[in-house]
Amino acid sequence: MRAALMQIDVHPDESVDSRRSRVADLVRAQSGADLVVLPELWPTGAFAYDLWEDTAEPLDGPTATAMSGAARDAGVWLHAGSIVEREATGPGSAEGPGRPGRMFNTSLVFGPDGELRRTYRKIHRFGFDEGEAVVMGGGEQIATAATAHGTLGLATCYDLRFPEQFRLLVDAGAELLVIPAGWPARRREHWLLLARARAVESQAFVLACCSAGTHAGVEQAGHSLVVDPWGEVLAEGGTDEEVLVVDIDPGQVAKVRADFPVLRDRLLGLPVPPRR
What we know:
Elements: E1 2-7, H1 16-28, E2 35-37, H2 49-55, H3 62-74, E3 77-86, E4 103-110, E5 116-121, H4 132-135, E6 136-137, E7 143-147, E8 150-154, H5 163-171, E9 176-181, H6 188-202, E10 205-210, E11 214-215, E12 218-219, E13 225-227, E14 233-236, E15 242-247, H7 251-259
Helix pairs in contact: 1-3
């Protein structure tokens, strides 16, 4: 299986429409890959809160339309990173139109036929009572996507800090954990460490795709990486825009889990001791 992680530079001088068109062409250029992965919120930027209201779109909006066509043209599975999704508005009343729907940080997975196969609304929102944590609604369920190359477990950026979510993804059959992100450069070491930790504890491949450059004054970590089920880094990007291409064997997941069956020794349902 050939995976291509596209570390997109979300430059503030490039319009959303221009970037959308450019990225679609980059996806089409990966026609030899099996799976292509884009970063979190690459159309606008993961920290560009002031743009979200005006650029939010439905699941059949311009970004989904462009990515559907690109996936179909390239004949690839495409994890199109995430978009600012605008939930469908409610019905209006005699006094006027309904309220605008809530916004979500939503990942989109397209099949090689261009069909939208799976969506995932980010569960853990970053910001500590500011930014995304306030502006966005939170997802309420984990998501996996069955592909011809294995089952994808979907998570986004800040989710990486919460191992409980990845345990649930493993229980749901995930073999390749796909994590688009807009992770800041000042916490790059956390990004690298947590990506490897999730691979080791889940005995799964981790494909972690971060954006590059600087937007909304926040320098991005870059350093997209692919980690195998034993925790070995198979490929790692730098800080500039690039496409990271790596060949992996999804069958390695079953082998590692059989040879070193740590997951069967999990102890669940232990009582929580009282605080002293």
